[in-house]
Amino acid sequence: MEVPKRPDEKPLRLPLQDVYKIGGIGTVPVGRVETGTLKPNMSVCFAPSGVTTDVKSVEMHHVQLEKAIPGDNVGFNVKNVSVKDIKRGNVASDAKNDPAKPAGAFEAQVIIMNHPGEIKAGYTPVLDCHTAHIACKFEKLMAKMDKRTNKVTDDAPTVVKNGDSAIVRLVPTKPMCCEAFLEYPPLGRFAVRLRHQEDRR
Q1: Which stretches make up the GTP-eEF1A C-terminal domain (predicted)?
Q2: Which among 41, 59, 94 is the end of a domain?
Q3: Which of 124, 134, 136, 151 is in the most buried spot, having the most CB atoms within 10 Å?
């Protein structure tokens, strides 16, 4: 069996799982490298907070690394950043190579898997996208599609329900970082949960 190629040639994307303040060291964000590489002395920026800083060191399981690659769960010490400046759901990226940006409105394909009623424009559920949990408004139902062929079956739907596949325009209620699925797949997929149950993705 061949080992899948890790997307280390892409620009860095590292969603934060948590941020710690460690005595004698400072602020240490932790998370998994999804694409690209993370190295000491690299300049990183965090989206959507807009903070830019330098990486002092990178560690995995208490061992210092010269380079972290996709799949590595790491902690990295950053300069002059407070634990109040960044948080879970922020995405670290290379400040000099296609830095991550906050998402405004975006279009996404959703499949309604388990929902008790009809969904109309204005519905505002919480999206789980990488480590972020942000309420997003279904601003407009753009089209309904055949799940098997992806052909448009209704170009102006007013409602969608269980079993439907649709293109919707989503607007985050708070600053959020997500990416186009074709460019950064781990940051381009999401799930919506209803009462602790997976609902759509």
Answers
A1: 106-194
A2: 94
A3: 136
